[in-house]
Design goal:
Helix content is 45%, strand content 19%. It is an alpha/beta fold.
C-alpha cells in the first residue's frame, strides 16, 4: 500500500510540474482583443487538461517559449469548453488547435499536429513579423 501511495504521489508531482512549468497566459477575450489591436504576434492553443494531444502540443510550445527568438510572441491557452463562444468566430470547434496571429489577423493554424518542426515553423512565421 505504501508503494502504491508513493507511486501515486510521484505521478501527481510530475503532472503538476508539467502544468506549473507552462508559461501560457490564460485566454481572456479582452486580452486577446488588445493583442490583436496592437498587431502583436499571438499563439492561441486550444487545450483541455485531459487531452494527450494537447499536452504534446503544449510541451512543444513551452520549449519554444524558452527560446529568446520567440520572446515577443504571446502564448494564450484557451479551453474549448470554457471559451467556446469566444472561439466560435475563429472557427474553433475542438481542442488541439494551434492558431497563430500576426498583424492583427490569423496567419496559420495546425489542427491536431504534434510535430515539433511544423509547430516551430508556424510560430517562427509570427515571430518574423514581430522582428524576432
Amino acid at each position: 500500500m505504501r508503494r502504491l501511495l508513493a507511486v501515486a504521489a510521484a505521478l501527481i508531482a510530475v503532472t503538476y510540474s508539467t502544468f506549473a512549468a507552462a508559461e501560457f497566459v490564460t485566454f481572456e477575450k479582452a486580452k486577446f482583443d488588445a493583442l490583436m489591436k496592437s498587431n502583436a504576434p499571438v499563439v492561441v492553443h486550444t487545450h483541455e487538461w485531459w487531452c494527450s494531444t494537447c499536452r504534446a502540443q503544449a510541451k512543444v510550445l513551452e520549449d519554444l517559449q524558452k527560446d529568446s527568438k520567440f520572446s515577443k510572441v504571446t502564448m494564450l491557452r484557451a479551453s474549448t469548453s470554457a471559451d467556446r463562444e469566444t472561439l466560435a468566430p475563429m472557427k474553433v470547434t475542438t481542442r488541439s488547435i494551434i492558431l497563430v496571429f500576426a498583424g492583427g489577423k490569423e496567419i496559420g493554424r495546425l489542427d491536431w499536429v504534434t510535430d515539433a518542426a511544423q509547430i516551430r515553423a508556424l510560430v517562427e512565421k509570427a515571430a518574423a513579423q514581430a522582428g524576432g
